[in-house]
Structures are given as structure tokens and as C-alpha cells.
Amino acid sequence: MNNYTEFSWDWLSPHWFSYGTLTDFEWGFHYFLYLIPFIPLLWVLRWLMKYSYRQQLEVALPGKGIRESKEALLRYIPFLFLMLSLACWLIAMARPQKTSQQVESKTEGIDIILVMDISQTMKIEDFTPNRLEAAKEVAKGFIKGRSYDRIGLVIFSGEAVSYAPLTVDYSLLEELVGDIHFEMIEKGGTAIGEALGVALNRMKESESKSKVVVLLSDGDNNAGSIDPTTAAELCHDEGVKIYSIGVGKEGKVPYGRDIFGMPRYVEQRLDETTLRTVAQIGQGQYFRATNNRALQAVFSKIDEYEKSEVKTFEYKEVQDFYRIYMVFGAIFLFLWLLTKSTFMTNVLED
């Protein structure tokens, strides 16, 4: 578009008065436009004053000598120029303008590692259908609810495995979580410290300002070569925050079926001390989930705590067009001055 801060011959184009052009404008002082319909009232007032106060001379003429002349309509042209001039100035005072807006967003995502326990005790059925399947469903919902964040996966039982690197391919992550099963790691036990160590190794490549580990387990640390407290301290030194989730009920819980197809119950104990300690060292928080709904609430709470930072910068450029209508107003005013004292206003009125 041309720059309309200086005069251009484009100013004199009639398209400035087209319906499409006028409706395309944004108006700084739109209330001036409401005055335009009242401009024709000036012509009515002028006519009333002219015929009310002028001196009239009665002249008797034969009927055949009176005829209408089209030339008499010329007397309206000067006043038409004046009304057009006023309309243009009202449009200019309404300040027609166009706004171009540009929004620039800068997003700082979070790097999150989900560390999931797949030991045999995750088969316990105090969750529906069991602890692992419930955790998988909630984890998929957690992944689906994130934006801009890179998420990785670590699974562990007697040893820990990096299952998925940090990525923003959420559909792939959901698919990988859905494929998790108990036979993925042969070695039995619960290696919480080693799982945190594997997650930390993944985080060392991260340049994100916010790094988070979400640890989900239901048992004591009874395997692996790294103590959970030591692993948590290493995470703290690297600026990695730890949220730990203790899954399951204590006491007698259903675990499989007996030969008669009836639920079999086993005694279960959860080492909350270890999970609470690693969360405290990692400057995060410990949660306890005893059923599906509680586990969903825990992940929702973590999702609420850890939000990506999105900074939005908005640039707005306003281009004014009132000068164009001021020029038209001046042109019509000049034409009014040019014609108001000519033969047009002196044509014999009928």
C-alpha cells in the first residue's frame, strides 16, 4: 500500500467513497459519522429561511407563459458542493484508519522426564485394572495436556532403562506409554536410585531453564547401585526438580487369582520415607495416590505447578487516511466558492 502521509494522485481516486473502502476502515472517532445524515437538513433549513423571509412580488402571467426549465436545477449544484465538503470533513474528523497487528510469541518450555515403575508389584489390583495400567492412562493424559514441553520416559524395575528421549512428539510418546509392559525388564526389584540417575543423564543434555522429574513407584528401593538420596542430591546440583508419587494402598491388597478364580490378597508396604526424601532434596513435592481418581488428581496438580512460560509481544501499526478526505473537502469547498456567485445561483427560480 502507498504511503499516504504525503500527497499522491491516488488520493483523488473515487474508490475512497466506495462502500467497501469505507466499511474496511477502523474509526478513531466514529461518532462524527452520525452527523453526516443531518447534512441534508441544512438544505431544508436554507429553503425554509429563503421562502419565509424573502420579499415576494406578485406578478400575473398567462398560464401559457409559465413553463418548467431544467436549467433551474443548476442552482442546487453550489449547495451540493458545500454539503459534500462538510461530509468529507466529518469523515476526516472520524479519523479513518487501518491497523496492522503483529504478534510475536516467545515460548520457554519445560523438560520433563516421566520415571515409571514396572516392577511386579505394579500388577496389584487396588487400582483398576492394576497399578501399572492406571498409571499409563494417567501418564498419557498428562502428555496430551502439555504444550511446548519436551518429555522423555524412563522405566525401571530391578534396573532402569531410558525408554524415550526428550521430545515434543506427543503422539509417539502416548504410543510408547501404551506399549509399556512388565516383561520389558527381566531383572526384578525396584531400583529407584538408578532410575533417577538415568533420568539425570538425559537431563544433562538439556538447555531448558526448568527441568522436572516425575517419579512414580509403589515399592522400596531394593535394587540398583545408586542410593536414591545420592541420586536426588545429584539432581538438585543439576537444577532438576523431583516430584515423587507413591502408588497403592498398604496392608492386604488384591494380587491375581487363586486356583478357584477368587482374588488373592498379599501384604503390601510402601516406603514413603524414601519417596518423600528424594522429593524434598529435589525441591519438589511428594504425593500419595491410593486409587485411580487420586492418581489423576496428582498428575493434574503437577500439571498445574509446572507451566511453560509464554511471552507475547504485540506490535500495532496504525495508518491514518483522514488527510485524503480533508483534501476532498477542500476541493468541494473551492468548487462551492467558485460556483456560488455565478449564473447557477441566479437562474430564474420557478
TrEMBL record:
The keyword Cytoplasm does not apply. Gene3D superfamilies: von Willebrand factor, type A domain. SMART domains: VWA (SM00327). Residues 111-302 form the VWFA domain. InterPro entries: UPF0353/GerABKA_families, vWA_BatA_type, VWF_A, vWFA_dom_sf. The keyword Transferase does not apply. The chain crosses the membrane at residues 29-48, 73-92, 321-338. Keywords: Cell membrane, Membrane, Transmembrane, Transmembrane helix. Pfam families: VWA. This is VWA domain-containing protein.
